[in-house]
Amino acid sequence: MNKDNVAILKSLQEHFGLDTQHSKVLVVGLGHTGVSVAHYLQKMGFKFAITDSRDKPPLEEAFFQVMPDTPIFTGGFDESAFQVATHIVVSPGVSLMEKSIVKAIANGVKVVSDIDLLVCSISVPIVAITGSNGKSTVTTMMGEMAKAAGKKVAVGGNLGTPALDLLAEDAELFVLELSSFQLERTSVLNATVATVLNVSADHLDRHDDIETYAKEKQSVFRGNGVLVINRDDPLVSSMCEDGRSCLTFSIKHSEADFYLAISEGHEFLMQGQEVLMSLAELPLEGRHNAANALAALALGTAVGLDKTAMVAALKVFKGLDHRMQKVAKIRGVTWVNDSKATNIGACAAALEGYDTKVILIAGGDAKGADMNDLAPIIKNKAKSVVLIGKDSGLIKQAINESVPTYSAKNMEEAVNICAELAQGGDNVLLSPACASLDQFKNYQDRGNQFSKAVLRLLA
Question: What does CATH list as the number for 21-112?
Fold first, then answer.
C-alpha cells in the first residue's frame, strides 16, 4: 500500500529536508531511472530540472512530449544547474565521482536516490536483493513465488521496471533488485528482508577495490530487517551482524537454514530436516541455480509466503533470457547462452555447474577485473576457449596455454570455431566474464547474436 501525498511529503521533509516550497531538485541523467524520478517529482509538486552529459539522450524527445516545460541541460553537466540545486538525484549510470557532483556535495547539496523516494512513499514490506551474480534470477523467482502465494507484488529496481514506476501498482509487497551503484546513493532503505547473494570482482572501474565494492553491497542490510546470508561466500558470511535475525543458505554446508542435501544419489533442497523439493524438479541449468532457489526460499520465508506455493512456483520457473538459457541441441551438441555473465564470478558459477568440461566463449570489456582470477576455473572446467572482444588478450595471457585457446573477430566467427571443435555430447557455453559494450549494444544484443549464429548452424 502506498502512503498518501501528505504522509509522503512529511517523510521526505523529515529524512531529506525536501519540501515543495523551497527545494530545487536536479535530476542527473535522462535514462529510464531519471525519467521515472521526473514523473514522481512532478506528481508530488517539486521544482526540478534535468541534466545529462550526452548531447542527445535517447529518451529526450519522448520526455519533451510529456513534460515540455521541464528545464533540460544536455551536452555536459551544467555547473549553473548544480549551483542552483538544493538536492540531486543521480542516476545509477552516473558516477558520484563526477567533478560537478563532488563539488555540489562539498557545497552542501544533498544526494537522494530513487530508492530513497520509493521508501518514503510506501508502507509495505520490501525484499531487497543484491549480489554480483544471480540477483535478477532470485528477484524474478521471488516475484513468481509471491504471485503463487496470492500476493499483489511489484518487482523491479535494477531489473525491469524502475523503482518509482512500481508505485502505480499499489502492491502489498515490493521485491527490488539493487545494484551497488543504487546502494551507494541510498540512505533510508530498511528492508523487511535483504540479501547479498555473493561478492566477486565486478565494476572495479567504478569502485576502488573489492572491499569497497563489498561494503556498498553490505549497505543493503541497513536497518533492522532479516538478513539472508550465503554461507558459501566468505565475504558475505562476514556480514552477519550481532543482534539481527539471520537466515543462511548453502549448497555446501548442511548447517545452514536452507541447504542442498544428497541422499541415495539424489539431491534435495532442504529447510532443516524438511525436504522442500528435489533438485531434479528445478527446471534450470547449473548448480548455482540451486543456491539461487535456496536464497529465494529463505527470503520468501522471512516475509511469510506459503511454503507450498513457493515450491510450486520454483517447479515451473524457466529462468531468464541470457542466463544459462539453452538455445539448441544440434548434432548432439548443446549450446547455452549465459551472456548475462558480465563478470568473473558469474562465469565461474556457470562453469561450476557442469560435471563435464565445456567449450567456452568468453571476452569483452573486463571493467578493470583481474582475469588471472578466472584462469583456475577455466583450466578445471573448459576443454577449449574461444575469445572475443577488447580484453580477450588479458584472458589469453591469464590462461597461459593451460587449455587450447582460439581468437575470433566477432560472435559469428566464435560460434563457427566452436562448431568445428565440438563433438556429440559437448556443451558450448557463452559466458563472457566481461561486459558487452565494446562490441555490442548490451548483453542482450550479445546473447541474441550468439543465438542467431547458433540457429544458422541448423541451415
Answer: 3.40.50.720
120 exposed, middle or buried (CB, 10 Å; 0-12, 13-18, 19+)? buried
Q: Which three cell numbers stand for residue 265?
A: 544419489
- pLDDT tens column, 298-310: 999 999 999 999 9
Query: Side by side, which strands form the sheet with 382-387?
Result: 325-330, 333-337, 427-430, 358-362, 382-387, 405-407
Q: What percent of the chain has pLDDT over 90?
A: 81
Query: pLDDT tens digits for 20-69?
Result: 999 999 999 999 999 999 999 999 999 999 999 999 998 999 998 999 99
> Which residue type sits at 101?
I
Amino acid letter, residue 19: D
d(CA 413, CA 105): 48
User: Hey, where are the domains in the chain?
Assistant: 21-112, 117-315, 325-457
Is 203 a residue whose pLDDT tops 70?
no
402-426 average pLDDT score: 96
Quote the percentage of the chain above a pLDDT of 70.
Answer: 98
CA distance 299 to 259: 14
Return the C-alpha cell found at 39: 514523473
The maximal CA–CA distance of the chain, rounded, in angstroms, is 70
Beta bridge partners of 333: 330
Give the active site residues: 135, 158, 203
Domain with residues 117-315, CATH architecture: 3-Layer(aba) Sandwich (3.40)
